[in-house]
Structures are given as C-alpha cells and as structure tokens.
Amino acid sequence: DAKTTQPPSMDCAEGRAANLPCNHSTISGNEYVYWYRQIHSQGPQYIIHGLKNNETNEMASLIITEDRKSSTLILPHATLRDTAVYYCIVRVAGGSFGANSKLTFGKGITLSVRP
Amino acid sequence: GAGVSQSPRYKVAKRGQDVALRCDPISGHVSLFWYQQALGQGPEFLTYFQNEAQLDKSGLPSDRFFAERPEGSVSTLKIQRTQQEDSAVYLCASSLGPQGYSNQPQHFGDGTRLSIL
A49 vs B106: CB contact, 8 Å cut-off? Predict the structure, then answer.
C-alpha cells in the first residue's frame, strides 16, 4: 500500500471545524483513502472512505484533491469526544478473489479538542 | 447490532506461559483480521482469514503465534511460550465480504491488552 504522511498533532476549539490533512503522493489509481480514529483504550473506529470524489456521512466529510495526492478529513463541529488519534490509510480494493486488503496504519495525528 | 467482541479484555501471563485470545466477529462477516498494537504505535497486521481459510499469515512475528477460525466465525489467536516483547494490545477486525472484491470497512473490537511479566 502507498504510504501516508500526517502531522503528529493538532488542536482545535470545541464547536469549531477540525480539518485534518493527509498526504499520499504515491497513491495508485485503485487505492482508496480511508480514515479511522482511535479513542484511548478502544479499537479503531471507521469514519469514512473515498476514491476520488468528495464524500460526506454523519460523522465527517472527506475532501480529496483532484490529483489524489492529498486529502482532508473535516469534522464540522468538533466536540470533546472527538479527541483521538486519527489515521489516514490508503488501501487497495478489488483484484483477484481472496486477495488480502489489510490496513497499514502509520502513527496517525493526535487531535486534541479544547473546551 | 452487536459489534466485534474480544475476550479477555485484559490478560496477564508469566513469561513462558501459553495464552489464547478470542474474537467473535460480527455475525455473517466473511473476513477476519488480527492486528498487534504496541504502546504508542498504530496497529500492525498479523493475519487474515476468509471464512475458515487463513489466506495470509505474513505478519505473524514468529512460529510461536498461531491463529485459527475452524468454523468460519469465532477466531482464536494463540501465543506459545510468551516473551516480554509479546506485550501489546491484540485487535480483531471483521468485514462483510471477501477483501478481494469488496470495498467494505473493517470493524474493530476493543482488543485484548496482554501483559507478559
């Protein structure tokens, strides 16, 4: 899988939008961008994924640049409960039957939401 | 609905003992993954099952690590002759379809924290 780079940490004020950047300059055409987060002492939680179009769900929005070399996860109104490590992952989808599509995590970005 | 369930939540063992960690995936999920997470690091892949078939065990760190999923649902990760470096959180994840043709997210349990004394 292509590697991703994320800044180690960032913070934002409660109620404001949190914009988490991710670079994936070597992404291939058949690789999706996935975002997970991990709250302390819990397993990773799926947030959203996309290929080239922007995506939105009840948790967040994912903005992928036209060249697909970077993306931004947007939490529109951050709360204290959004404090977590956020992982940006690129992942192959499709291919031969039975092919593995494991997740390759980096160190992620630690988001701290302040009151 | 029920998510991925792992037990025990915490396990303490003495060096040299064998341990078994259990994962109950979401009902009907074909794919099952095991990951290992060291303190301060992201999870690292250990092994992958599609139904009862173990299709990838490339991430298992040594032959002391063994995983099985005999009926294609519950899975057990066994570590023999544990060492201190085995101390970590062991995470299980499942997803609905086979990974090759599906583009479905993996859903994780909260893991088993293993401490080797």
Answer: no
